[in-house]
Each structure stands twice: as structure tokens, then as C-alpha cells.
Amino acid sequence: MSIHRYTSWGRTRQPKNLAGAHLTKISASYTVPTESSEGYNTENQRYLHLLLSTTGSSVNATVTCYGYYHAFGKWVALEDTSGTAITIAANNTTTHQIHEIAGVDKVQFVSNVTLQEYDSLFAAGSTFQGS
């Protein structure tokens, strides 16, 4: 008799790192994504948790979030529920944000500067908003 094993995150209270294991950084690119193979799977989580920490030469970093929909086959700049582009910026600081992204299949991040090894960009998904 076979046992059913869940293959997606399902309903998650704790944010799950989109890049894999906890503490795994997200890579940001310089260019807007165009291929369906790019980006990070969201597993259709409702909320996107972002953390950006910059120091030194990466000050004034701004990262813009793009979303991919399998139904459309297109990447689009993501907006929050008020119509504002989802971006996160840090100027020698650490910034944390939570955005609703219900229905987005993948996300990709585009930075205006090269993030250095000592900088951190993290993205996680969850079903519940949390804090």
C-alpha cells in the first residue's frame, strides 16, 4: 500500500526560504527575467517576506521584485495591493518587508548594484502574514 507524501509546502505558518535551506541567500540579477526557467518557485504561497542588509560598497541598493505566472507565460514587475512596485532598499542598514503575492508562481529579483558577499538578500514565502 502506498503512502501519500506531500511534495509542496502547503499551508505554512513559518516562512520558508525560497532559495532552499534556512540561511540561504537569494541571488539578484541586473536584468529583468525573460525565461520561464529563471527565478525562484513560490509554491503559491500567499506572502513574500524580504530581507535586505547592505554594508560598504553596496550602499543605496534597491532590489525590484518580478513575478512569473505560468498562466500568462510572462514576467511582470510585481506590485503590492495598493499598486506600488514591490522594491526593497537598504543604505548601510537592514530592511524587512512582507508583501502579498497570492497567485504568483515564481519570483526573481533585480538589483541596481552588485551585492557583495557580506550583503544579504533573503526571500521566503508563507501562507500566513506573520510579523
Please summarize the sheet with the most strands: 5 strands, antiparallel
Q: What fraction of residues sit in β-strands?
A: 35-45%
Helix count equals: 0
Element pattern in H and E: EEEEEEEEE
DSSP helix fraction: under 10%
Terminal residue distance: 42 Å
Which blocks of ≥5 consecutive residues have pLDDT under 50? none
Show the helix and strand layout.
Blueprint: E1 16-17, E2 40-41, E3 47-53, E4 61-69, E5 74-77, E6 87-90, E7 94-100, E8 106-111, E9 120-126
Antiparallel strand pairs: 1-9, 2-8, 3-7, 3-9, 4-5, 4-6, 4-8
Description:
The structure is a single chain. This protein is mostly beta strands and 131 residues long. The protein has a domain of 84 residues. Helices cover 0% and strands 37% of the residues. Strands 2, 4, 5, 6 and 8 form a 5-stranded antiparallel β-sheet that branches. Strand 4 and strand 5 form a beta hairpin. It is globular. It starts with 15 loop residues before the first strand and ends in a 5-residue tail after the last strand.
